[in-house]
Amino acid sequence: MFDKILFATTASPTCDAAANVAFDMAKKYDSEIIVFHTYGLPSRGYSPFVTDVRTGDAEVSHDADYAEWVKEEMKNTYAKQMANVKKEVRFETCTGVPYTEIQRLARKEGVDLIVMGAHTREEDVGATRYRNVVGSTMQRVAKSARCPVLIVSRPCTTCFWYFSNIIFGTDFSKASDSAFAFALKTANEIGCKIHMFHAVDLSDMQMGREHDQKEIEARVKEAKEKMEERYVSKMNDFDNYDIEIWEGIPYVEILKFARERNGDLIVMAHHTREIDPEKALLGSTVEQVVLRAACPVASVNRPDKL
Amino acid sequence: MNNVSLKNDGQMLLNGRPVKNRPLMCLNHSLGIAEECTFRSYFRLIEQYPPLAELSPFFSGYLKEYRDAPEERCICEDFDYLELSKTVEMIGFPGKPRLEIYIALHGICQEGTCDMRHQSLFNLLDMPLKLGRLKHIIFGDRVDVFEFETVFTLFEFIDGIAWELGFHSVPMTCTVNPKEVSHV
After folding, report:
1. Contacting A residues, span 112-171, partner chain B, CB-CB under 8 Å
2. What is the ipTM of this complex?
3. Beta bridge pairs of residue A241
4. In A40, A131, A227, A241, which residue has its Cα 20 to 30 A from A124's Cα atom?
């Protein structure tokens, strides 16, 4: 299912949950795995010094020996997980802007899946409302990657081995069609159930917009018809699914739904609305879901690598 | 300053007299909580004063879970009690200097604080709930941490815990057969 997996890591404990899932999948699907870490931002021109991405230290000397040392450190960090993977595990490092370099490598290598953590550092939940804690790297990669991006922000011991409930959240956008194709392919491969979900967005009630019951019911009916037309019609023989339409604030409803159905993977399209991730405070639905969900979230925007 | 106190049964007392209605007027009052209060008292408070439930979109789901929970022995052995604390961080480096103030709910055990997001509500409801201190952290060339006594308003209490609950979820299916994954 995935021939080549790119695991983008900060090489810190915050990515341990993502590492477990990435190596687990490589083992399960007999995939080649590339472990990639961008360790420094170039500071000036062709200077031999880079700014350490994690610590912000400005004067990290960067040369071939340093890059080799970083690779060795990564090998030691992931030695235990590597032992279970049959195919080659490659370690790559470079300097540069992390999201650009991750996408460059993903394109160059033609990877089928990018696995990454949600944060660059451990955050207190209370602090998340004041900080753009869904890493901007994750946001930018999820928004532009040509392949699915699996974001793992919490420890998850059995993913992609015992998946039993895939939650597919849709807003009926074009990108959601790609997310659906990924959800269906994964469910077919694993033999599990897809819960197709849409939330009729009532968040404008706070702005004074009134919704009467008839209107809500009409929108729910319309959404159900769209589900049938857009997705069910493409399922062929696959019949292990259900359709659920709720109303409310989309990210709240999808999280509640995932909890109710014991979802172990949420598949969604990243919103394509152009918000500068550096400025967006808990911006789109997918970011809210990534932050709060207990299970991994797959962001799929394009059909290229499905 | 006006002061409200929370009883174990979720009732608020204003100047020693029970608050019967208009609880929103108490939101900016400083809060004291009775020693016997548990996490369940928090839900009893929200249940007793319905307007407070509008402060977070997650309340409807959690109130349902709270109502479905057993009426006693909902405890977690990983920590001793739950504590709501306030943190003021002055961050000078890296990046632009900034000040952040936030409220967090943690489990407290002998080793210190622990994350409670992975605990089911069924394991938390009868855990004692306490108001903690203010932690003042300064990130500069070195990190300085100071702790002070502080007060919480009713709003900070409700909203701080509600925010935390928005991140709270237990991966039920992920606990299935974890030993079969070889590296775990």
Report:
1. 124-131, 154-159, 161-165
2. 0.73
3. A194
4. A40
